Structure formats: structure tokens, C-alpha cells
Amino acid sequence: MSKSILDSKQSREIQELAEISNHTKRATVLEMEDILYKPFPVLDHGFIRVIDYMGDDAAVVQAARVSYGKGTKKVNEDRGLINYLMRHRHSTPFEMCEVKLHIKLPMFVARQWVRHRTANINEYSARYSILDREFYIPAPQHLASQSNTNHQGREGVIEGDYANKILQILKDDASNAYDHYEYLLNESGEDSRPGLARELARMNLPVNFYTQWYWKIDLHNFMHFLSLRADPHAQYEIKAYADILLEEVLKRWMPITYEAFKNYKVDGVHLSSKAMEVIKKMTKGEKVEMEQSGLGKREWQELIDLLQ
Ligand SMILES: Cc1cc2nc3c(=O)[nH]c(=O)nc-3n(C[C@H](O)[C@H](O)[C@H](O)COP(=O)(O)OP(=O)(O)OC[C@H]3O[C@@H](n4cnc5c(N)ncnc54)[C@H](O)[C@@H]3O)c2cc1C
Prior knowledge:
Elements: H1 8-18, H2 30-35, E1 39-42, E2 46-54, H3 57-64, H4 75-87, E3 98-106, H5 107-113, E4 120-123, E5 144-146, E6 154-157, H6 160-185, H7 198-201, E7 210-218, H8 219-229, H9 236-253, H10 255-266, H11 273-283, H12 290-293, H13 297-307
Antiparallel strand pairs: 1-2, 2-3, 3-7, 4-7, 5-6
Helix pairs in contact: 4-10, 8-9, 9-10
Bound molecules: flavin-adenine dinucleotide.
């Protein structure tokens, strides 16, 4: 974890907050307390910070059993119950836990992110405040060409002089846009020009500029978000955030739920009845061809890829 993505004032504020301890009767998770407020860097200027959380694995079990007390039994039994809930899509016990995060992300990533409607958001106001000169430039290994097979994806890294030229264009355009933003705002009062309202000046900035928000979501919808955005089909830039939320946050916060989620949702699969028929025939040693399977070309290929 690095703090270089924050300035010294921001680091000091976090440090001061981290030094405060509160006595509580509520469930706490030591692994989460360890990372509270600290930034996990993402992309070139982004981060994720855990601000608060409610509940733990035991809270899921407690809600599922509608218990008067802790509701937990032996760890094995609790694990079995959480696995059962996950396997059978019994979602409401997971909705009893929540997490609140501070996230800094490029605007084009934010635009994908807000499609997840089941969270609460409060975003940094560019009507009220001035955005920093911070824009996302892909690392060279992520500069890829348009995929020919997947219209919604990329393939093959672009290298050499052409890659350098693309990176230079991206940097120059963002820098020029920010120069104009500053000119329009005219914070220094140069030439006695009126500064353009912040709410208008910001429209000149491209979508690779960073924004930030507080994002609060319950555990069920958090996992739904992760199942879509930590998936290989998601765009690399939003996946970079989802991977950290999965492996650094969920894993610490809810180790048993994380295990079940990985097993049934992330690494598990959902199959159609036709795909199941194909598998049944194959396990009986029958040869099945795509043409007789009833599956379309894409679903057939996905099934074959899964079985390899
Ligand atoms: C790889 C990928 C590609 C995508 N491509 C596109 C694209 O090309 N164009 C595009 O527009 N979007 C695209 N999306 C966004 C996608 O269609 C969803 O809008 C987004 O993933 C949010 O999913 P969600 O609605 O399930 O999540 P949430 O909004 O968090 O909702 C969670 C669940 O709550 C329920 N729910 C929430 N709100 C309602 C409601 N109003 N009515 C009924 N049920 C509700 C649904 O069951 C939903 O699944 C893409 C997403 C991914 C992951």
C-alpha cells in the first residue's frame, strides 16, 4: 500500500483518523480495522479506501437464523450455512452487511460504475470545487488495439513508435484541456476577466480526468457488482478496481462469504438445460457435436472452453 497518491495534508488527516480508537459493542473485523482509511492505489492516480463497514460473516449467519443472540454455531456449521445461502441465491442475509468506500476513479470508469443502481453515492462536486490536473493515461502494456472478434473489447498490445505517439496525443490533449479549464476559471483574476462558473468550465475536460466519491453498498449488491466487474469480460480499468475490492477488501472483511462467493459465483458457472444435456451425454461417453447439441455457436464454444 502506498501513500504517494495522496498529498501530505491528506496523508496527515488519514493518520490522525487512524489513531483514534472507539470502544464499541458492535462486531468488528481486525483485518478490516487494519486497512481502515488507508488507500489502495489503482491505475495511475486512483485509489480505494475503506471508510466504514457494518457486520461480518457472523452477522450473515445471525440474520439467516433470525437469532436473538450471536446466532453462530461451530465454524463448520456457519460455513455450511453461508455456502447454502450462496448456492441457493438466498440473498437477504447478505443484505444485512454494508461497506462504505472512498474511491477515486477516471470519469469514464465512473460512468460504468454508476450503472450499478443499488448503491448510495456522494460525488465530489466540480460545480463547487476545482478538479485537479489528474488524468488517466494507460500503462504501455494496456495500450491495445480494437478486438476484431469482440466489438466490446481490445486485443494485442500496441508497441513501438506508434504506441508512443498515441500516449503523447492522450497526454497533450488532456493537458491542453486542463490549461483551457484553468484559463476559463481564471482563479488568479488575470486581465480582470470574469472567471467562468466552475459548473460550466468543467465541461471542457475529457472523461479520463479523475473524479471521486463515497460509495456505500450492501454485501449482496457488492458481490453482484464484483461478479460483473471482476469478470474477464469487464473493461480492464474498472476490473482493476473490482479486483482490489474482491481480493483486498471482501477477502479481509468476510473470509467465509468470500470463499463461498469465489466458489459459487466467481469461479463457478451457470449452465443452460441444453448445456447440461451435452455434459450428461459426454459423461456417458457419447460423442456430441455442436449441430446436434441445440446450442448456438457462441454458447457451444463457451461450454467447450469451460470443460478444458
Ligand atoms: C461487461 C459488461 C458490458 C456492458 N455493456 C453495456 C452496454 O453496452 N450498454 C449499456 O447500457 N450497459 C452495459 N453494461 C451495464 C449493464 O447492462 C448493467 O446496467 C450494469 O452491469 C448494472 O447491472 P445491474 O442492473 O444488474 O446492477 P444494479 O443496478 O446494481 O442492480 C442489481 C440488481 O437489482 C435489480 N434492479 C435494480 N434496479 C432495478 C430496476 N429499476 N428494476 C428492476 N430490477 C432492478 C436487478 O435484479 C439487478 O440485477 C455492461 C455491463 C458489463 C458488466
